[in-house]
Write a structure and sequence with these properties.
mainly alpha
């Protein structure tokens, strides 16, 4: 076999092996991301987030209250685990190394990590309520700023 052909075969094999290793690394990286999301109880976190969001919408706009079930079904369909899982795995894999994802999963498997996960929806709700309260308390200032802008524009 000519030397050039041998070298070509060696290079091709090396490239193929590198590609296989990269795919294996990507697969284990995504598996680590999926494990971290599972440990974070992301499926339930997303559902709790939908519940909080729909409740906040209904509270802010009472006319929506009668449609709460339909809105919740819609949000669950597009913001639920089944809809977002693959994309979330990609996001986490892109933003964290495999080792970091393993650390995240390990943390969320601890007693403290489980508490963080179980309290996240309640903390999100309280944070939203706090933000709404602060805006309402200072609404006059916002209206004044907007009024001043309108005067400048005219």
């Amino acid at each position: 076999m000519p030397r050039v052909l041998q070298l070509s075969l060696v290079v091709c094999l090396a490239v193929l092996l590198c590609c296989q290793a990269a795919r294996a690394d990507e697969k284990s990286h995504k598996a680590a991301a999926k494990e971290a999301l599972k440990a974070m109880d992301m499926e339930n976190q997303l559902q709790a987030s939908v519940d909080v969001t729909v409740d906040a919408l209904a509270k802010a706009n009472p006319a929506l209250a009668e449609h709460k079930k339909k809105i919740k079904k819609f949000f669950s369909k597009y913001m639920g685990w089944e809809s977002l899982e693959d994309d979330l795995v990609k996001i986490y894999a892109k933003n964290y190394t495999e080792d970091e994802l393993k650390d995240i999963a390990a943390f969320y498997k601890t007693k403290t990590g489980k508490k963080v996960a179980s309290k996240s929806a309640e903390i999100q709700k309280l944070s939203m309520e706090l933000g709404q309260k602060k805006v309402q308390e200072n609404q006059a200032e916002l209206l004044k700023l907007l009024s001043e802008e309108d005067k400048k524009d005219k």
